[in-house]
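Hey,

The postdoc asked me to send both predictions to you directly instead of through the lab channel. I've kept everything plain text so nothing gets mangled by the mail client. Protein one:
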Amino acid sequence: MTRSQGIALAALASFCGVFAAQAQIDPSKRELIQLGYNLPLEGSAPRSAYAFYYLNIPHFVRTNLTLRLAVAPVYLDSELGVSHAIAPHTDIGFGVAGGGFADTYSEVRAGRYLRSESFTGHGGGGSVSLYQLFNPGQRIPLNGVARLESHSSFYERDTKTAPDFILPKNRTTLNVRTGLRWGGQEPLMIPDFAMEISAWYEGQLRTRIGSYGFAGDRKVEQTSHLFWGRALLAYTLTNWHHNFYVNLTLGTSLDADRFSAYRLGGVLPLAAEFPLTLPGYYFQEISARQFVLLGGNYSLPLDRKDRWAINALATTAGVDYSPGVEQPGHWHSGVGGGIRYRSPHNAWQMVVGYAYGIDAIRTTGRGSHSVGLLLQFDLERANVALFEPGENPMRSRGLQRIFGGFFQ
């Protein structure tokens, strides 16, 4: 397998983490296919892409069981949720996740992707989660989560890893997460409605710590502590169908290393449960010890049926860098725009866009450009006829024309 293939699979695997830490068992039946890709127009960068199949089945085998699966190439994330396991509003989840390239690390420093300091990682483990609903019967749910997870990581050299670069030791990490989430957001590319205020803590305890890198110039901390919170609102105006999304996320940490730092960059909405997007930047380009990030997106429909729309987005973030990856300036901003299309019945939708990283460091100075593609296919909605009665199905060749060039 080539280095580029390995990076691509690593990116595809890593994005399944978006579903690994939900704050409650999802009560809705879902069957989705999600794809996303960001392409920098200058410089060498880690692959920024995801492709996965997401399935959520309430009443699986028994009425109190829910099965959740997120499947990407060489990676699987799953959880079996048991409703009312301890009390009427207390649920338990048992999770298993892992696969190839899941723990790959890419070093990006001052706008440069350093392949000589990057390496491949594989891993997996299991978790037990406790979900508690604190306000049953209320319109906006308040959920609490407590999770204990064991995760093992195994590292190997890439073809471009420097010969004198010492890899970190294979290790097992014990993660403890607790949090409160008021409201929430569905796992959709562009939600029509969402509201969330949440606060979280995660503690990480590692085995086999020590130095690695060039002559031991960096180290793996035995314990790291992360604290973060998020407030978001997504709303669609009923008559005009204008959609807006605003998000404020901030976080800090204690004893964070390269593996536990907050990573900001890229424009992929399902890159993580808490995506820290920066338009125009490389994927996870910025490593931060603490940060504050404010972003927004506005969608303006171009037709009465809201099939075509113009999207505009902007994000700004203030960061305090992790040790060893500092760079000039502590403020980063990016803007972007694109065209969105939704099919009848919203069975699938696609966004094609452009982004500009205003403060990103490149060889020519500040500023970087990228283009991207997002695609969501909702198999549940597709069960409704994709074509109106009497409509000529050969009109679907427009989709074949759009994607045909990728497979020729």
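Protein two:
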Amino acid sequence: MIRGRSLRKDIPEITALRILAALCVVISHLHALGMVCAARFDEIVDGGRPAVCFFFVLSGFIMHHNYPLLDARDSVATRRFARSRVARLYPTLLLSLCMALPTVIYLLTTHADDLLLQYYALKSHYASWLVASAIAQLLVLTGWTPAAAINQPWNGPAWSLSCEFFFYAAFPFIRPVLQRLSSRLIIVAMIAAWLLQGIWMIALYAFAAPNRSPFLVYQFPLTHFPEFMAGICAGILFSRFNRQQLNVLIGVATVAALLAVAAVYSWKIHLPASYGETPIFLALIVATVRSSGSLWLAPLRNSVVVALGHASYALYIIHVPILLGASVFGIAIALGWFWLPLLLLASLLIHYRYAEPIRRWLLTRPQPQRLAQ
């Protein structure tokens, strides 16, 4: 951290960045579903995939920011951490599956084969696959199942929750290990993990089945773990470095990203755009936190923008069930860009009137006493 700054300080600017990333995903899906014309934007943001990687890096940073002393050896604190993560994410996931239910029932009862294939990648045995997919969604396992008929129905974006819950399970174990390393070794670990991630992705494209490799590159939790780890490392370094050292970290990360992007395009390496952009995300997060409270970041502290940032998870996780339902029931195209304010309003209502009250209730209700051994 900057000397004298508390790591527990709220960072509204970081919260605001979340809504910008979520909007990249939403607009890309609006374009993919033919509701708006945003081909150039979709090309620039690569279908919103880098935005999800940004969330993973940010998640690692924020986890260390909020739980700087968490250690798996402290079972009470670890259980409290797990409970808080489930209370934060799971209720909105359940709501999104309920939102998808009318669409699923309609497609099944009308035997809409073309739409079941287009939206859910289902060719036959529809009911069986939909039940299997629902179970995978409820268990937060879709990211671990390289089958489109499992991870695409109901709510496709929920694959990222498979990654997040895996990251949260690993966090109490990996954070103390990284914390004990010297700053130099942490930097080495970040670089090594990033390079190994690139090698892993190249190997997947080269050796995995062509119908499985894109899934393993874009959705498999192990593939994205280095991004979460980079966020943790950045959080630890931020707590140790002074302003000059942070400037060097930001500069080196930016240069590394530019070189990686240039190498990918020049040598035509089969890597997703998000790979080369990961150091940029790290630099952006560190630079934003370092400058928190400054005048030039004032727009990111606007109360409306921050409120939308808090609701960004709701926006991300509920927009596909809503948009697919609108497409199936024939009300999608007419609204066009008006979908954006509607979805933003829906996300605010869901976050503040549904998700937050449930989260507070889950965290404050009495817990059953453990039986004495």
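Summary for protein two, as requested: The radius of gyration is 21 Å.

Thanks,
C.
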